[in-house]
Design goal:
Layout lengths: L1 E8 L1 H4 L7 H11 L2 E9 L3 H14 L2 E5 L10 H8 L4 E3 L1 H13 L6 H5 L2 E3 L3 E3 L8 E6 L2 E6 L3 H21 L2 E9 L4 H7 L1 H5 L5 E8 L2 E10 L2 H18 L4 E4 L4 H11 L4 E5 L5 H7 L8 E6 L3 H8 L3 H7 L4 H15 L3 E7 L14 E8 L2 E8 L4 H21 L2
Helix pairs in contact: 2-7, 11-16
Length: 414
């Protein structure tokens, strides 16, 4: 098995301010393509430390992966140190500069000298474009050894690894093609999903592996396949994806990296439907998720954050006797909120959420994490009770995503 070493750069890792999750992820991915990680080294942001660690790693390993120290500030010295180590001059890369410019324009930000400096790269490296950030990856070949430097931001590192590094290493060291396919799910917990897929996992071909990647209720099922050609690997993955759709059709909402708010927005747009929201415990989080999707103005009319009961009664038409008899956190209140916002906004669908986010406010009958969600439409009113966690931020996030998933399923059912 070919061998690799990982070097993570950053004082924040050494003092415990940041946990190094990058190395664990890279080790898993490398192992999948037959490359073992023999050593992981964490070092400070100092030139001599970087040079010494790199020199030692090159002596021991065929592949050296470096993360960290590629930002726009003066303490990010990895790039300059690598140029010095490999005897390179720094040159402006036009493609990287345009990528940075485009990202800044999209955010209505002005280019400054720090941003421009990120487009400077050693003249003897191969640039690995970063579509998720402003710091490119860089690959060097030294005495037939491969050295790759990447940003320390996890999602940027993963992008460069997935798009550039893993395919290259797979071809060079194993002669294999590697492909990933993500199936996005929502509506169950990881242990239950694994139970549902026991037979599926058992029957997977030897060249395909399944990973569970959960985050706030969304569980990404990642299929990784290796083979001798793009066509054969692509077809092998497609066969397994078709099986998944037969086994768990009710909880798959999309593929690749699509989020629930995007998948729901696509459904609304395709059907020319409109949406409004009334939020209590989520405080506008659902509306924020919806409006993060480009083009959402075509289907989203607006939202009322009815945090106080007076807002529920005055703006949404929730009856005072409903609040008195059932309380703000109830099916009845959620239902009246949904009907009220749909009437006010004149939309095809409405979503309402009311609950106890915590950490205080719970009772034995309604503990922290109790949430009622209602969806109203021409098909009628549906309400669901959910009990999430005792953590406020978790409850807000899970309530928001669960509400979107309920809406998505309700649209699909009509």
């Amino acid at each position: 098995m070919n061998n690799a070493e990982i070097i993570t750069i950053g004082d924040e890792i050494l003092i415990g301010q940041t946990i190094d999750t990058n190395s664990a992820w890279m080790g898993t991915e490398l192992n999948l393509i037959g490359i073992s990680v023999n050593r992981i080294t964490s070092i400070s942001d100092r030139r001599e430390e970087i040079k010494n660690a790199l020199s030692e790693a090159i002596d021991r390993a065929e592949i050296v992966l470096i993360t960290g120290g590629l930002g726009p500030t003066s303490d990010d010295i990895t790039k300059d140190t690598l140029a010095e180590f490999f005897g390179a001059a720094m040159v402006m890369n036009p493609a990287v500069l345009e990528e940075i410019s485009a990202r800044l324009r999209k955010r209505n930000l002005q280019m400054n000298e720090n941003n421009r400096r990120q487009a400077l790269v050693p003249d003897n490296c191969t640039v690995l474009m970063n579509r998720t950030g402003t710091a490119p990856g860089m690959m060097f070949v030294h005495n037939e050894k491969i050295i790759v430097s990447m940003p320390g931001v996890p999602y940027e590192m993963k992008h460069i690894m997935t798009e550039h590094v893993l395919p290259l290493l797979s071809r060079k060291f194993t002669g294999k093609v590697i492909m990933h396919k993500n199936i996005m799910t929502y509506g169950t917990f990881e242990a239950k999903l694994a139970e549902m897929l026991v037979t599926f996992e058992r029957d997977l071909p030897e060249n395909i592996r399944l990973a569970y990647l959960p985050a706030m209720g969304v569980i990404k099922l990642r299929l990784t396949a290796t083979g001798n050609s793009n066509a054969s690997v692509s077809e092998a993955i497609a066969q397994q994806v078709r099986k998944l759709y037969k086994i768990i059709p009710g909880i798959i909402y999309g593929e690749d990296e699509v989020m629930l708010e995007e998948a729901t927005g696509i459904l609304l747009a395709e059907r020319s439907l409109t949406l409004s929201t009334a939020e209590s415990c989520t405080g506008g989080r659902i509306a924020s998720l919806i409006t993060s999707v480009p083009g959402s103005s075509a289907w989203f009319r607006g939202s009322v954050v009815a945090y106080d009961n007076r807002v529920k009664t005055a703006l949404l038409g929730v009856r005072p006797e409903t609040l008195r008899l059932y309380g703000a956190v109830s099916a009845e209140t959620a239902g009246e909120m949904a009907r009220g916002i749909r009437r006010v906004m004149e939309t095809d669908y409405s979503v309402a959420v009311t609950g106890i986010a915590g950490p205080s406010g719970g009772t034995p009958e309604k503990p922290v994490g109790t949430v009622w969600i209602a969806i109203d439409s021409a098909q009628g009113l549906i309400t669901e009770k959910h009990t999430f966690a005792d953590d406020r931020l978790v409850n807000i996030a899970r309530s928001s995503y669960t509400a979107l998933n309920m809406l998505r399923k309700q649209i699909l059912s009509t």
